[in-house]
Amino acid sequence: MTRRDLVLIGAALIVALAGYLWLGSPTRGDLPFSERQDEIANKDPQTLTADEMLTRLEMAVRDEPDAAEPHYHIGVLMRSQGRVEDSIRAFQSSLRKNDRYVPALVALADVLVARDVGEIGSTARELYDRAWRLDPSQTRAGVIAALALFREGDTDEAQTRWALILEPMASDDPERLQIEDLIAQAEAESSGG
What we know:
- The protein has helices at about 5-25, 35-40, 50-65, 70-80, 85-95, 100-115, 120-135, 140-150, 155-165, 175-190.
- By secondary structure, it is mainly α.
- About 70% of the residues lie in helices and about 0% in strands.
- Helix 4 runs antiparallel to helix 5 (about 85-95), helix 4 (about 70-80) runs parallel beside helix 6 (about 100-115) and helix 7 packs antiparallel against helix 8 (about 140-150).
- The protein has 10 helices and no strands.
- The longest helix is centred in the first third of the chain and has 21 residues, at about 5-25.
- It has 2 domains: about 35-120, Alpha Horseshoe (Serine Threonine Protein Phosphatase 5, Tetratricopeptide repeat); about 120-193.
């Protein structure tokens, strides 16, 4: 090692120390994690960073080990950060706590479809279908499940489900009109038009 190398290493150490003293907080001690959790628990939720929100949700999981909701919200947070596989695991955890939790059924199906670049696989179709059967107001889930059946070639079942979804809707309901347009598009695509 030459004298020049030693001078460069020394200069780098001095710059690092100066940066730490200027940007860091050498006079402030670290908070134990439990104190940091207490601080996060008492903060206004609107002011939480994503990491603090995750910590708060993990605390909720610890405090309510049988609740599906905290896992669901972790999944939503993970998905918003682009952490697709982590969001899938969180939604699955939510469903292990409550396999009838409709928001997690729909969210898991949505993330699977997004991961598969718009392809509605059989797992996503089953999740959408289950969500719609548990909560008929989940028309979007029912329509997507029926669309998947239609694309798989089960046109009779798809049309039966679409009819069930449309039945309670008023004829001038904008959602009904959108669904009818989607059905017409799907039928036109399948007939080659």
